[in-house]
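User: My instructor asked us to take a sequence, write out its structure as tokens, and then describe one feature of it. I'm not sure where to start. Here is the sequence I was given:
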Amino acid sequence: MASPNLRDMGDDIATVTEAAEPDTGAGKPARRPPGSFAAAPAPDASPGGDPRTADAPSRPSLSPSRAGDFLTCPLLYRFRVIDRLPEPPSPAAARGTLVHAVLERLFDKPAAERTPPAAHSLVQPQWSRLLEAEPELAGLFEDDKGHDDEAQRSAWLAEVATMLDRYFTLEDPRRIEPAHRELCVEADLSTGLRLRGYIDRLDVAPDGEMRIVDYKTGGSPPAEFEARALFQMRFYALTLWRAQGRVPKLLQLIYLGNGEIVSYEPDEADLLATERKVVALWQAIERARVNRDWRPRPGRICDWCAHQAICPTFGGTPPPIPDEPVRPALPEPRDGSSPV
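Assistant: Let's start with the prediction itself. The structure tokens for your sequence are:
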């Protein structure tokens, strides 16, 4: 596939900007790619935005990871975006970060050299780079006495190797030339809400058709949860569509946990429905913020939550909500239902 110049792909409403620091979720490395698809030249300064523009006028923004937080649990969204509480690193998140980094750097090599041994050779240097960026990861494999647990570290590295090997059973990277990796995409909706996110890989064919690819280091979800999994991909597709005026041809989730690929072809009707959902979701977030009503939503995710000690579901007490200017309370939807 061809790799077109970004400046040749824009339309009258899109510009290419230097990327802001990403709004990273678990398993995502923070880095600055060389460019981005965007519908406006400056990043926002809203919660979760670019700290370098903290004195700029606030612009509401939403990323797929933060949207997913609110859908999962409004209180989790508050802890991460409003309170900005730290969360300890986990082996699973670090594994995802490392696998993503290796697959990204694999495409730096000439096509013929993109082999399983080449991928394995990238594990140690990429892990060293991540340790330098996030020194707290060094404590992931310490036992109760603060000593390194070599057995645990070896098992973790074996999982990384298994996922990399599994990748080569799903794709042949020697036949792929990504247009972009870790691509920052941004677009402004007519409501004033800015969408933003980072795409693992964007493939662009010679005729301009786009394929959005996302690597998942977990297993593919059951059929009844597939739509939820595809929401993130539709979010990316919507952002690209609004920024560039072209609907991506294919959305592809590569599950390295169990070796499955989920593909979906969106159309304008899908993306318009996604836009309505995103706008309704943002309205619900704004209503929670203005009403200072961040309710927990207990579920399976609670087993992995780092904030159980201060969650009311587990008998805890959240810290006071940071002060904000008082504004009138926002009404609930007329039918009392969730907007999303």
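For the description part of your assignment, you could build on this observation: The CA atoms of residues 89 and 137 lie 6 Å apart. Try explaining in your own words what that tells you about the chain.
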